[in-house]
Amino acid sequence: MSTPEANEAAGTVGTLVVVSNRLPVDRVTGDDGVVTWRPSPGGLVTAMEPVVRDLGCVWVGWPGNVDEELAPFNVDSMELRPVSLDAQDFTEYYEGFSNDTIWPLYHDVISAPAYHREWWDRYVAVNRKFALAAAEAAEPGATVWVHDYQLQLVPAMLREARPDLIIGFFLHIPFPAAGLFSQLPWRRKVLEGMLGADVIGFQRVVDAANFRASVRRYVGAPSSGNVILLPERDGSEKRRVLAQDFPISIDANAFQTLAQSAKVRKRAREIRRELGNPKRIMLGVDRLDYTKGIRHRLKAFAEILRDGEVAASDITLVQVASPSRERVEAYRQLRDEIEITVSRINGDHGTIAHSPVMYLHQGVPREEMAALYLAADVLVVTSLRDGMNLVAKEYLACRSDEQGVLVLSEFTGAADELRRALLVNPHDIDGLKAAMLQALRMPPREQRQRMKALRKVVFRNDVARWSESFLRAVEAQAAQWRTNAAETDPALMVNDPVFLSPGLDSALLRLSAEQSILVACDFDGTLAPIVPRPDDARISPRAERALAALNEAPGVHVALISGRSIESLSATGVQLDEWIVAGSHGAELVGLPDAQLVTGAPSAEERGRLARLTEVLQGLVALTPGARLELKPYGCAVHVRQVSDSVVGDRLLAEAAAAVADMGEDASQIQSRTGKRVLEFSVRRASKGEVLGIIRAELPDATVLFVGDDDTDEEALQSLRPGDVGVRVGDAPTVAEYRVADPEAVAALLSRLVNVRTGHVIGSD
């Protein structure tokens, strides 16, 4: 690594400027007294490392020592711009307002926040110091990414000093409900500080919703979906601020590679031996903080041992508690309490040869942590309130053996994504004990099923996707604002040749603010216009772009539910790789590997029945010019769209229905359904309603938008629940609450949902 002295002349400025409380490096003084710098192990640094590695950046932050003045210096691809803090800055801005006011307030007042005017004054002064340093470091038109609760005023200060900059702000901790936030005496000033950004990112949908609610109440700025409409000071026009969730993640591949190394795997075996080879190892990894629920975890563990549910000699709980804010009295008290509790558990249940709790009050290097993840049968995360909790994701990324169980607090941001974990309320000690016991006793097959699904989420939504989606949103917001892409009210309605009814638009606005959304659509007549030859059907380009954007958005899942076979859908050229896809009216399902639906080849009985069905229909179809028989994995369909005489076509469909009804015992096992100029038969009973139920069972918290155009889609529309949104294409009778005219209107509907959910605009073709 380079030293500051060796890099005093470094003066390059990048197009990306990162601003955080701390620089991403730690000082290392060698035996010879030479100072070097190495990347620090914090969560922010870990998350940003791939971005910095690929883009390079200027990073503005405090180097970590009081009253230290350092010149800019380089470390790898970063130019570091140190901001000096004196002792009073550290005491009042950092330990005071940041960590004894904002931290407890934003974590649901688990500990009482303190409100001191001198702390606030110092917070304002230090934020201005960071803003000026960032303004000096940024070249014209640069993107500045400001991080976390210590610097909430920096975006507005930067915008005032440098209106040419593109500004993003990301809050790594929760944002409280408006009722709690109202306690803060300087609430409006904090909100206005954050609103200086073009994009404000949060860990969870609920955090973004809490922020928008506070802005409406205390700033008076309305919002449309995730977009806040902020009047400029002269009242002339409105600036758009996107406030939405961007769940942070990890470099999953890097953790997997590390955990697969021979050195780490060997160390994992050594850890089990050093602990006496217990039958089960539970692991807790936390910063020593009152928000992490360590006391609740230890209480539940102690009661499990007390009740004899698990023999103390058969289990070890390894608790890693990294030192944190040890000058703060509340943290010193927490450390004392935890150490007393650990001593009591070991005193009550331990032996000379074995201690049930192994307590490590120290930082742990990444390699050792990966080995602990491999050694642990169960990871227990009991946070009382947590922005994300990356430890849970690290554990999953390391478990390529698809073994191990995650017990996860529902009050973490990670719980929104990791639904196959054992979710717990850590305040419910009995429920926490039950989940811990379930984890300890879980059979390998169930572990594998859960771990496979959880790892898929972590690897799909990795840190690269987080940073890319955030930076794309920042650039898109800034570009749209600067070019005045919408001349009237850009957030209320993007200029569009298709009009959506006010009721439907309101439903989309409501849907956009939901924590989790499932967007499910039929294909023919919905995403693609009906054409004479089904092989010629193609999805609307605008609809495909909108679905791709929704699929990239955090908390949104996309499903295609069609009467076509999956093979036929793929032949149309539609991109299916990242979507959930149900074909043959739900008889086929891909994209949900753990869903309880058999989608393999037809059974011998089904194949025989299908052969006889095909033989009957082929003879009829061959006699009618223009008619076509489509073969599917579980059935076949008689198409008459190209039969020139509609009367002849209708007669063929009637004859086909009668012929199948005359197939004796087979007839009772064949399902038929009518579509638009098509009659379909299936030897496996399925429906779009049933498969939608299977999909949503895997996404239990998702609110559903379903869009379809024919009678087979009514089965799905009828299955919707209160709060879901159903849309029927065309004017046929329907149970759906809303209608649109045609696939062009569907594309506009989906584009509107993209706009209010993400702030992006999907233009008409």
Describe the fold and architecture.
By secondary structure, the chain is an alpha/beta fold. The chain folds into four domains: 5-83 and 127-171 and 178-233, Glycogen Phosphorylase B (Rossmann fold), CATH 3.40.50.2000; 252-461, Glycogen Phosphorylase B (Rossmann fold, 3-Layer(aba) Sandwich), CATH 3.40.50; 493-598 and 686-758, Rossmann fold, CATH 3.40.50; 604-682, Alpha-Beta Plaits (2-Layer Sandwich). The chain is built from 25 helices and 29 strands. The protein starts with 15 loop residues before the first strand and ends in a 7-residue tail after the last helix.
Strand content: 15-25%
CATH architecture of the largest domain: 3-Layer(aba) Sandwich
Q: How many E-type strands?
A: 29
Q: Figure out the total of helices.
A: 25
Distance between the amino and carboxyl termini: 51 Å
Count structural domains. 4
Overall, the morphology is globular
Spatial strand arrangement across the major sheet: 5-6-4-1-7-8-9-12-11-10
Radius of gyration: 29 Å
The third-level CATH topology of the largest domain is: Rossmann fold
What is the makeup of the main sheet?
A: 10 strands, mixed
The fourth-level CATH homologous superfamily of the largest domain is Glycogen Phosphorylase B
Text of the CATH class of the largest domain: Alpha Beta
Structural class per helix/strand content?
Answer: alpha/beta
